[in-house]
Amino acid sequence: MKQSNNQTILVTGGAGYIGSLTVKQLCDDGYDVVVLDSLENGHREAVDPRAQLEIVDLADLDQTEKVFEKHKIEAVIDFAAYLAVGESMENPEKYIRNNVINFIKLLHCMKRYDVRNIIKSSTASTYGNPKKESDFPLIESYQENYQPSHSALLPGKWKDKELEGEEFFQEIITYYDFFYKSIPDFALSQADITKLRIPTSVYGLTKLLDEIILEKYNRILGINWVALRYFNVCGASLDGKMGEDKPKPTTLMTLAIWSLLDKIDKLQVFGNDYPTKDGTGIRDYVHPLDLATGHISALEYLLDGNKSAVFNLGNGTGYSVFEVIKAVEIASHKKVKYEIKSRRSGDPAISFCDPRKAKNILGWRAKYNLTDMAETAWKWHSKHPEGYNGG
């Protein structure tokens, strides 16, 4: 074990899937780590015993401030967010309150206690659903170059009303303005609003709004930040002791494994008639251990005094649905049963990123491939079919 370097890092959401693996890597690298997590979706068992766990909800500003008073924090890595795209469309207010308003409370604490560096867990959902083949691989400046006049939000609910597109979008902007329009520092410019029209989900919109808020905090208060946009996360720790434990996973690889463990019915494959090599959609996948090292590379980048930036974290290579299924079959020595369904509205044929900026500036690149993801995920789920509570 490395000696402490006396730098204390606060990891919000550090009892969750990616957060817990990042906490372990931080401890291995000699950092002192404080985990702030409400345990609403996180797991006490996932927190490395070398870290200090503070069971606090970011919605409670007084308790959050006490954490900052108690610990001399050098930087924050923020994983605290609701993540379910489908739920965000059914309960958008919940996602705005948690993913945006609570995030602003966290930044308030950073400002008050003079913590100047934050790594933000962001998402590929900020890119929405690019339609042109020339848009791929996705690069970090995409949102600056694409300026839509209407929102791409898919159908959802707002106060029991079925809405979509610009009408849905304006309700969300009005809700945000209710809290912050009177505070000039948080007012949204027309350029901000144009950019926020890109995501197709409320979840993606809240994450992009957080990036915009970070820009404002950096410009006005000098808080430095890195936002890491990553793609489909699959895999577990190499020893199979830490992994994904969600009641309703949505990732293809996890669902394929759950079908083998009889936790769900037959796997559904949405579309086999895409213009791809095997007819199924192609996506970028990344291992959570690669994300852990990516967050730490970004942390070191900021602690060295570098400027705020956005980076993609992905393999930069797309894998098809059938390739993911095949990887799970090889890892498990079992046959995945699936059924072909119609394409889902809005799903692109291909989506993957260009991770070269992270490689060139952070010195980061993905180490693990699809085989590694499937082998570690199978080891975790097969040994822990009920997650951490199942032993």
Describe the structure.
- The protein has 391 residues and is an alpha/beta fold.
- The chain has a domain of 118 residues: UDP-galactose 4-epimerase, domain 1 (Alpha-Beta Complex), CATH 3.90.25.10.
- Helix content is 39%, strand content 17%.
- It contains 13 helices and 15 strands.
- Strands 3-2-1-4-5-8-12 form a 7-stranded parallel β-sheet, with helices on both faces. Strands 9, 11, 13 and 15 form a 4-stranded mixed β-sheet that branches.
- A hairpin with a 2-residue loop joins strand 6 and strand 7.
- The radius of gyration is 20 Å and the shape is globular.
- The mean pLDDT is 94.
Within the CATH hierarchy, at the fold level, what is the topology of the domain at 235-285 and 315-381?
Answer: UDP-galactose 4-epimerase, domain 1
* N-to-C series of helices and strands: EHEEHEHHEHEEHHHEEHEEHEEHEEHH
Note the beta-strand portion: 15-25%
Rg, Cα atoms, Å: 20 Å
Strand order within the widest beta sheet: 3-2-1-4-5-8-12
- Please tally the β strands and state the result: 15
Helix content: 25-40%
CATH architecture of the domain at 235-285 and 315-381: Alpha-Beta Complex
Count of DSSP H/I helices: 13
Family: Belongs to the NAD(P)-dependent epimerase/dehydratase family.
Cofactor: NAD(+)
Pathway: Carbohydrate metabolism; galactose metabolism
Keywords: Carbohydrate metabolism, Isomerase, NAD
